[in-house]
Structure formats: structure tokens, C-alpha cells
Fold this protein.
Amino acid sequence: MPRPPSQKATDGMSVWIIWGAALLAYAVFRLWYDSWSGPLKPAEIDAFLSQMAGRFEGTGNSPDVMRAFLETDDGREFVMLNLVKAQMEQVEDPKTGQRVQGFELLKRYSKRFMPVLFRNGGHPGMVGRKVGGYVDAWNTEADPGWTIFGLMRYRSRRDMMKLVMDPAFMEGHPDKLLGTLATFSFPTQRVVSFYVSPRVTVALVLALLAALAHIALLTCGA
């Protein structure tokens, strides 16, 4: 039985709504995922380093290295490589006073860190555990016994600054210090990668959902 013109018009409108919603959802994702503010301005850098005064010395980091990194900001995303040697011995929990494994405090810090990272447009790229000693190394210090590594994607250097100054991050930082025996991190930018970008993944997922909804609409109206 032929479908009435009014039903065809309704179905046509539904198709537009389905694909329009998918496109809108992807636009919202890109507004969150991409950096739109451009490189850092000198006044922003000065303000950030001023707020960080005293925190560099406590961890042995260099404000000069941080300033150089911020002053060469290109406004693009970057990935921070982190190597961590976790504290596997017992330490005193600063909140309860009880003795706990330091690694547990490091995991508690991560639970605080991740929501702040997501809120500022970042996410883990890869996190894993070390399963052997150095198999290719020269002119470098001996393996201190790294425990885990992480690749953390930051939307921009400005967003990294916002994360570091976030109250939730600052409150959890003592747990990181107690749960970490040694660590080093340095920023990188991708040159070659065989992993699909979240931009592509989200686009494909939304397109698949819209296509399935479109097919379901045609099937129900047949």
C-alpha cells in the first residue's frame, strides 16, 4: 500500500533531525575537544608563574624550563609523557593517619586528576605498566625501577595551566608526592601515529548511530 504524502514528509523531516542531531553533537564535541584561544599571552604566563611561586622548589622542578615551554606556545594540543616509580612501601595517609601502601595514594590522586583533566579538554592517550628493564639504553642513568608510564593529551598549554591551578588538583597533589618515589615528564607533539584520533572515532560513532536510526526509521515506515 503506498504511503501517504504526509507520512513521507514526516519521515523526511525525521531524517533531517537524525543527521542534524548527529552533526550538532559532533560540533559540540569539537568545541570542547579543540583549543580555540590561541597561544598564551605574556601576561598570562607571568600570572601563572607568579601563582606557582614556591611550588617549583618543593618538587625540584625549574621555573625557567616551564617559562620556556609556555613562551613557545603554538596554541596546539600536546601529549605529556610521564614515567613514574611508585611508592610500594607503607606510608602514612595524610587524611586518616593510617598506614597504607603509597601506590594506593597515587591511585587516589589519579581519581582526582582525571576529572580535572577531562574538564580541561584532556584525556589519557595510553597508560601501562613496566614489564622489564631497559633493553636499549646508553649514555643514560640506570633504570631507577619505573612502575608505570602514561601519555596524557592536553588540549593546550593554557589548559595545562588551568589544571595545575585547579583546587581539586592542588588538594590531591600531596597524595601524588607520597605515592611517588621518582618521576619525570616532558611534553611531546605527535609526528606519526597509527592510532585513530578521537576526532575521527567520535565522528564515526555518531555517523553509525545516525545511520542505524535512519535505517530503523525506513524499516518501521516500510
